[in-house]
Predict the structure.
Amino acid sequence: MKYTPFYQEYLENQARIVDFAGWALPLEYTSTLSEAKAVRSRCGLFDASHMGQILIRGAGALSLLQKLTPNDICLIQEGQQQYNLFLNSEGGVVDDLMVYRRQNSFLCVVNALNTDKVYRWLRANAEKNVEIIDVSTNTALLCVQGPCAEDVMQAVMGRDLSDLQYMHFIEGDFDGKKTLISRSGYTGEDGFEIYTAWEDGIKWWCGIMEQRAKYGLQLCGLGARDILRIEVGYPLYGHELDEKINPLEASLEWVVKFEKDFIAKQKILDAKREGVKRKRVGFVMQERAVPRRGYSLYSQGNFIGKVSSGTYSPHLDQFIGMAYIDSQYEQEGTLVDIEIREKFCRARLKSYPFVKLGIKHKGT
Amino acid sequence: MADVKFAQSHEWVRVEGECAVVGITEYAQKQLGDIVFVELPKVGDKLKQSFQFGVVESTKAASELYAPLSGQVNEVNTDLVHNPQWVNEEPFGKGWMIKVKIEDKDELGRLLDEESYKALVQKEGH
């Protein structure tokens, strides 16, 4: 089992700990629902140090990334980040990631489950003029998320952060801690992600926790993280994404920039021309019933697909989820039946996000 | 809690005259975490001891509920449909689930008393 630098803090805060991709992580501290609610109304602190960070630099770094991903990294400047995908040669998703464009390197933040796989994939495709370094084991990652996140971080850092725009980051030596801070997250709320050295992580944790009472900040576990990302329709690798799903099926066409060249571009163009057979959609249950991963969907008795993620949404007080279904049924408003314990429960297709996004877009 | 008995599957039973009130224990609700959905039988349904009578779902997983006694369902706490969190808040109070007309008093003898149940919970590790 692997442990993040905050394991002791989990214990001291009575977290219920689970094994996630080989890491001992908090499922919840007090209650998953109250943690999720705190992030929508005030603020929550997540440890995401299990995630992978791969540094890519050298003369061929940009072209390697451009080759393996469908989004156009040239669209972002130094100090900006971008959501992107690593694709395999068939157009399936090796992993989804966040790319940070730095002065002399790119920082790729990948899923814990996929870190080794992505590292090998990059290695296998790299020319000699690229350096690829897995810095995961030395990188702590804390996420402060929610409408009060800016207040919290300003109080912690003693500086104004209102100029830091969504999907932008700053880097530097903050109070003796070398840190990268971006305005981003996985909750749909305004928030910050703090990347720092493993040994400096605890200093940030303590600094943030000092603001706990003032801003009603809540420690949040994986349970809340999953609810929050489903409420805004963010995909999770292994649920909505895998090696056999292409970006069009995943409803991530906005990520694909056909103006540039990339691996499996022709396959994705072919799929686009022919039309994909299955599609990721969102749905809201029309009755009280919990949709869970793997449940079957039907339209007038015909099997049309399966639930990829489902949850109770404390923000909406409704049951929501995402599913992969036969694309001929993908239209918003379509009524479907989800089989739950041998009973059909009504659901209506609805495009996500299911809740209003709190992120502060400033024209980007 | 002299009149309260417990099933190994973590339901409690409180005898009230001819009837038994049934719910899940404090230990069970804690293990389940936030409860978001409860599926209960209908009034008139016949239950059989140790057989499934419903489902409780938390944010984490769905768990089956087992009848601690046989008998006909007399009353159902339908408030739980819209307030499943009551099971977390007061599993022994407003989070009760069903009332069953006791069919066979001997079945009560096959349930655990409070002390034995406490021992069972300790053995399970919490």
Notes: Chain B touches chain A at residues 33-34, 36-37, 39, 55, 57, 59-60, 62, 81-82, 85, 88 (CB under 8 Å). Residues 8-115 of chain B form a domain with the OB fold (Dihydrolipoamide Acetyltransferase, E2P) fold (CATH 2.40.50.100).
